[in-house]
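> call design_seq(struct)
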């Protein structure tokens, strides 16, 4: 068990060095957090709790490797971006990715093209939920409001 804890500790530090390579502030903060977490639980003797913490360390390692993207701030409010090269060279249709660090392990999802003509239906009410639109889907309230407006004219 001690070997598993030490292995998880070392792996988190290797992941920290890999994911935050070149970012001194993130490297320092990551080292402090990992060391603090392991020291805090140093005296744990319950085998089940230790296994849960090892599992947590493995999950954190996976999340860091697959979901962290570093973006370097270029100017106030502007971070790494995809820049068409043709802005610099009108003959080029290629894109230049600047100031982003994405590792090979980073999860990439397929882009889904937005359909502006898509009809998004309102979710159905769940049992026990209060009807906020009146008993008739709002028709009674709309009729009442129309009658009140007609009387005011």
């Amino acid at each position: 068990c001690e070997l598993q804890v030490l292995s998880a500790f070392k792996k988190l530090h290797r992941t920290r060095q890999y994911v935050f390579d070149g970012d001194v502030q993130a490297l320092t903060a990551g080292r402090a957090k990992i060391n603090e977490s392991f020291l805090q639980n140093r005296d744990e003797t319950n085998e089940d709790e230790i296994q849960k913490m090892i599992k947590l360390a493995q999950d954190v390692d996976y999340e860091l490797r697959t979901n962290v993207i570093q973006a370097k701030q270029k100017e106030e409010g502007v971070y790494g971006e995809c820049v068409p090269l043709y802005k610099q060279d009108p003959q080029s249709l290629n894109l230049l990715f600047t100031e982003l660090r994405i590792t090979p392990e980073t999860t990439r999802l397929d882009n889904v093209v937005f359909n502006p003509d898509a009809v998004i239906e309102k979710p159905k009410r769940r049992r026990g939920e209060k009807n906020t639109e009146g008993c008739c889907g709002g028709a009674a309230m709309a009729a009442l409001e129309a009658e009140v407006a007609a009387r005011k004219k």
